[in-house]
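Weekly sync, protein design subgroup
Attendees: M.S., D.O., the rotation student, P.L. (late)

Item 1: inverse folding check
M.S. brought a backbone from last month's batch and wanted to see whether the design step gives back something sensible before we order anything. D.O. pointed out we never logged the input encoding, so this time it goes straight into the notes. Structure tokens as presented (333 positions):
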């Protein structure tokens, strides 16, 4: 039995493709591990631990909401030192928390998650349970806006990488060592994970840096799936709220929505993803088809009209009821 195992190991070592993959994983691990940290804290259930990673040289850390969103007495283990951490943001929609320690730190470079495709190789680095920092390797399984009938706030990367306790908040990396996203939840008993794209996390962070809060934008447009496809989209503008930014921009009921900001639209679910990236006070370009013509409009989103909306509150990584298929709203909670 031992001889058979040894022969198998020798065959693996002799395989140039496997050897190249192993070397690449080891290279990324060595390059990035110093920017990945262990986080310990307490919540209403007791002690907890998780993973996070630095995104700038000033001690700013991304992690998942379940690790840093509502916990107290947060301590970050960085190298052979322990630092108390301050929570900057705990975001309702994205399921992430942003922490900060008072130290100069290494950090991971943010990549572009849209460069990933199904079957792209990816790596995570985290702190499982009470074990040392550990790499894992897998592939992208898909890109999902919903799971088990429940919608995410933005399209997530589904990574075929197992996740253990303590690894929530770890980075998803490409083979260059660039951060592609944050592991925010797991599925099927941890055999795979959902990852918030790094661009969504950066939207949250940029909002905080500019406004000291997350600022979702609202333009007051309701949409539904139309009966036919026009220029690749079946998203019909069903209602435009009077005097709202969409109406002031010139949108009309009956327009076919083709693009929201940088996001091309083909289905109502594409709109759900696109609205996550709308920021109040930032100009928003919209493209529609109207009477056979391709038209572009510039809207000026505002804060959602519900003034009682929570700024930072608890979030379950997979949460919220399924939106009705007949109507989605551009902007708001």
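Designed sequence read out in the meeting:
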């Amino acid at each position: 039995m031992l001889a058979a195992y040894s022969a198998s190991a020798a065959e693996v070592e002799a395989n140039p493709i496997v050897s190249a993959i192993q070397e690449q994983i080891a290279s990324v691990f060595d390059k990035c591990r110093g920017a990945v940290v262990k986080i310990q804290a307490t919540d209403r259930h007791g002690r907890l631990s998780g993973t996070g990673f630095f995104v700038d040289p000033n001690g700013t850390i991304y992690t998942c909401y379940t690790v840093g969103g509502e916990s107290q007495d947060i301590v970050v283990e960085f190298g052979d030192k322990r630092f108390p951490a301050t929570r900057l943001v705990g975001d309702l929609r994205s399921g992430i928390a942003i922490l900060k320690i008072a130290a100069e730190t290494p950090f991971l470079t943010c990549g572009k998650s849209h460069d990933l495709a199904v079957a792209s190789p990816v790596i995570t680095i985290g702190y499982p349970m009470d074990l040392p920092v550990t790499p894992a390797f897998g592939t992208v399984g898909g890109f999902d806006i919903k799971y088990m009938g429940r919608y995410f706030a933005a399209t997530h990367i589904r990574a075929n990488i197992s996740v253990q306790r303590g690894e929530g908040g770890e980075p998803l990396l490409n083979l260059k060592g660039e951060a592609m996203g944050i592991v925010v939840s797991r599925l099927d008993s941890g055999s795979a994970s959902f990852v918030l794209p790094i661009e969504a996390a950066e939207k949250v962070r940029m909002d905080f840096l500019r406004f000291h809060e997350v600022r979702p934008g609202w333009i007051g447009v309701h949409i539904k799936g139309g009966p036919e496809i026009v220029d690749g989209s079946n998203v019909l503008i069903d209602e435009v709220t009077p005097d709202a930014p969409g109406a002031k921009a010139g949108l009309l009921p009956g327009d076919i929505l083709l693009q929201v900001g940088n996001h091309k639209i083909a289905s109502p679910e594409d709109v759900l993803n696109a609205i996550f990236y709308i920021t109040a006070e930032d100009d928003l370009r919209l493209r529609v088809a109207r009477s056979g013509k391709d038209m572009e409009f510039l809207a000026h989103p505002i804060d959602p009209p519900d003034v009682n909306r929570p700024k930072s509150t608890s979030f379950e990584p997979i949460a919220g009821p399924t939106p009705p298929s007949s109507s989605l709203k551009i902007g708001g909670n």
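Discussion: Residues 1-7, 309-329 have pLDDT under 50 and may be disordered. DSSP finds six helices and 20 strands in the chain.
Action: P.L. to compare against the previous round before Friday.
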